[in-house]
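Quick one, T. Sequence first:
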Amino acid sequence: MKKLILAAGIAALLTFTTAGSAAPLNTNGIPAAAQGLIHLDYDLVKKSAIGTEYIASLKSQKKGSEDFINTLKDDLGLDLEKDAISDITLGLTAPAAADVDPDVIVIVRGKFSPEKFLSAGKKKNAKFVAVGKHSFANVGTHDKKWLVGVVDGKTLIAVNKSAALATAAVDAHTGAAKSFAAPAPLVSFGKQFGNPAILIYADGRLFPPADNQGGVSVPPPDSLYAALGDNGTNIRLRTTAAYPTAEKAQQAQATLQGLAGIIQSMSAQGNGAGGKQDPKSAARLNKLFSAMKFTTADKFFLFAVDYPVADAVQALKAQSAGKAK
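Structure tokens:
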């Protein structure tokens, strides 16, 4: 789970931000039992400088790539760049065992053709399974398997596990079962932030009891809220983690701030080809670490970043080109 949260945070910081008016938080299709939520306003993302650059980088990847978005397009005729319109929502539920991935449901709202989806899948010999009256296709990406279905002309549903999980998502979408109710603090957090492109909520059950790697121990919070967006000049990230005691919040602050300092120091020793440091990349990375603010307020750990949009775009361009600039 920690890898999932880290990957989501990095991807969000580098790709999905925009200035503008955020769409209302939509949780339809996410089962009521979900313990975490990631809501992305894709309509705004497509109009942002960073979102545009990220989408262009996906196009440059070779066919046969294990990238999930390209797999959907190549194997099932689902072009998220063109067909996703409003928002993308992920629901997460902790597994029974600590070493098992969480249940993940992805809801994409846009304009999708069930007929085109089925036709493209059959041409690629996709294996379909029945989920109620809907057909879901098995999709392989990297070392994961997904079930993907177009349940109507406006909604795509993808799940990372069984047909039972797909059924739960379809039932929540159609109203046969209740959808997840966004916590009031999350809604309030988003309003206080102002036009977030991404809102994140995680129940404490999604975090492992402790994160121990190389002597580093980060206490798990009771809950976490995060918002990401930009004001046209800077990317803005705000995170609030609630702890049972002020001491735990302070421990999280000290550990994460110290870890960031270690990573910053290591990156300064060389991040270019052959271990040679690239000045421009190093300067952007140093600016990012310097912009990080770690604070506490009673039982809450607070993390904030304000980072220039122009620098983030340049970093993404360098990454897409396959070399540091």
